[in-house]
Structures are given as structure tokens and as C-alpha cells.
Amino acid sequence: MGTPLCILLVDDSRFFLELEKQFLRNTPAAILTASSGEEAIAVAREHCPSLIFMDIDMPGMNGLSCCRAFKSEQKLQVIPIVLIGDQASATNEQDARAAGGDGYLSKPLGRRGFLTAGHRFLVSIDRRESRQAYQGPVGFTCRGRRLQGHCIDVSSGGMFLVCQSAWQKDENLLLNFSLPDEQQTRIEIHGRIAWANTQNESIKENYPPGFGVEFVNIPDPVGVALRRCFGT
Fold it and tell me: pTM of the entire structure?
């Protein structure tokens, strides 16, 4: 068995810590918390989290200073840190990047944006609604080639596409498939490969070779059809 995943949440506000824990409730990871920059460093040294969400505006050692401390320590510098600012604050994404932050969010926080930011660094973060098991053929175009695969689950935000071809993460696809509704509505939609299972490396061991696809640039009529079929 591999090392259990853990995510560290850092904020001096108990409200935001509880909110972020709720966002991560479906993610298969241990959730650790710290209420200050100093405590965050101590917790990270002991537990080596896979990802950190850190508030910037904390008393004492603020998030920017704490992030710089992480990035200057060899054991800790590899941990991705998503810094969280406030729209009312003068601190912005440029400041976060200058401090070594790997990602940036601003309050007020929304579940989808929070989980999408984390998913960039930790693919096991559950950022979408539950997918519906569905076996169906999918035509797709990638690198100018027209290919055929089939999905085994799908939601209003994406699908898992079974395919033996070795495509790469972040490659763009154009997908054509029928929804599992009464009309078998045919849709065309753009997608991005968010993660891949291969013969040599399985991100999700219970899935066959293929890739998880996130739908992008969804036209309004297609979005309505997806939500009607799978819910929001």
C-alpha cells in the first residue's frame, strides 16, 4: 500500500477551516489543519502533506512569509501550496506567485473553484458531482486524428474514456457522443485530459487504461442538456 494522502488547511479562521473541510469531504485523503504559519510548518514537517491550502492574511507569520519559508526548506519545498487571499486585500496573485505559491484563490471561496485549484496538483481530489455509470461509444478527435473509444461513466462535468492510445495530460479533445436520456441526445463538446491510466501507471486502480476528461467551453444548450441528464 502507498503512503496515505493528506491535505493541510491553514487559516486562523475556524469558519474557513470547516468550510474547506466540507469542500473536501468526498476526497480520499486525511485532512490536517493549522491556525498559523508557524503551526503549518510544524505539521508539514511531521506529516509531509501532498497539498496545502493556505490563507494569506494571518496574524504573526502571514501566508506569504510562511510560503517563502516552505520553499526555502528542502524537505518542504516540493509541496504544492495554494495561497488564498481576500478580494478586499491589496495582496494579489502576483504577490502570491512572487512568494513561491503554486496556485492562488481569493475569498469568498466557492466549492468548484476551490477543488479545481487543488485538482491541478492532486488528481484524487473529488471536484465534481458523482458520475453515473454509462457504457456508450464516444468518437473523439485528438491531434487531428479521428478515433473511437467508449465511456464507462459520465457526469455534467466530464467522463472516463476507455482508450488504449497513449495521450498526454492537458491534451485537447473534441468529443461526440449520445446522452443516456430518452431522446439519446447527440452532443459535440470540447474536453481536456485531466488524468490518465496507462498499463504502467494507474491513478485509479479500478479503472482500465484510458483517461479522465474534463468538459471545457461548454455551450449553453449543451450545458442545459448535460445538467438535465446528470443533475448539477
Answer: 0.58
